[in-house]
Structures are given as structure tokens and as C-alpha cells.
Amino acid sequence: MGKNLQTKEIFNGTDGSVWLTTDNQEVKVGSMKTFTLKQANMYEDIDESESYTKKRKLVCVELTGEFTKWRIDNTFINIFEQYKNGKQPDISIIGKAYNNNTNKVQRVKLIGVTFDELNLIDLAQKTATEESLPYACEDYEWLENV
């Protein structure tokens, strides 16, 4: 077995941060609530003659995620205005997870980010407004990885 779990070694999203870079600005997103990046492996099924088992061949990877923040400005509305006008901005995101107990850091840069959808206006009584942006990216690069 491994060592006992030390709770102070667990990463905490409160200590994380996100930076967004577009064609004309780079901003630290102080209103960030959640940030995820996931990789899905895509396979093609390979049927071999005289075999009842199926094999799979890796054919690509898909990088997607979601970015959720408190709505305090028009940063994402401005990006979607560019999309509406037929322009695709060059977008990258840097996400940082930090554990202030262990000083371990994970920083990843997402390259070729495209956002899929945004609620342009979203209001509910007695509720703080959030923005959730699903996205895809072309690649990622680890800048620091524990």
C-alpha cells in the first residue's frame, strides 16, 4: 500500500488562477470560479478476420473543457461579438493550480482555444450571475507540473 493521505497535500481550487490572452489583451481572470481541461482519446474499431475480439486504433485526441466565472465585465461578450462578425480571435489560456502547503504547482497553457457558446444575458432574481463557456483547444503545453 501507499502512504497515508495527508489532506494538506490536496490541491485546492481557491489557490488557482487563470489568465486569458486574446489578439489584443491579456488578463488575469479574478472572477474565475471553475476551470477544467480534459482529454478524450478517439479510437477506430479494428475488426480482425477470424477473431471475435475487437481491437482499437488511436486516431486522435480531443481537448475540451469548461471555464466558469462570475460575470463582472464584457470580456467574453466582446469575444463573441468578434465571432458574430466572422472573425476568429487567437486565444490562449493559462491555468494554474497551486498548493500553498506544499508549494507544488501545475501550470498549463492551452493553445488555439475556441469557445463554443455563451449566454449573452442571463438573469435570475437573488442570484449572482455566472458565465459558463465550453471550449475546445488545439493543444496544451505544461509550463510547470509538480
Structural class: mainly beta
- The helix/strand order is EEEEHEEEEE
Count of individual beta strands: 9
Report the C-alpha radius of gyration, rounded. 19 Å
Task: Write down the CATH class.
Answer: Mainly Beta
Shape: globular
Instruction: Give the termini distance in whole angstroms.
Output: 22 Å
Percent helix among the residues?
under 10%
Largest sheet: 5 strands, antiparallel
| Low-pLDDT residue spans | none
- The order of strands across the largest sheet is 2-1-5-6-9
Tell me what the structure shows:
This protein is mostly beta strands and about 150 residues long. The chain has one domain: Hcp1-like (Pnp Oxidase, Chain A, Roll), CATH 2.30.110. It is built from 1 helix and 9 strands. The protein has one helix spanning about 75-85; strands at about 15-20, 25-30, 30-45, 55-70, 90-100, 105-110, 115, 130-135, 140-145. The strands form 2 sheets. A 5-stranded antiparallel β-sheet has the order 2-1-5-6-9, with no helix packed on it. The longest helix is centred in the middle third of the chain and has 10 residues, at about 75-85. The chain is globular. The relative contact order is 0.23.
Topology:
Elements: E1 17-21, E2 26-28, E3 32-47, E4 54-70, H1 75-84, E5 92-99, E6 104-111, E7 114-115, E8 130-137, E9 139-145
Antiparallel strand pairs: 1-2, 1-5, 3-4, 4-8, 5-6, 6-9, 7-8
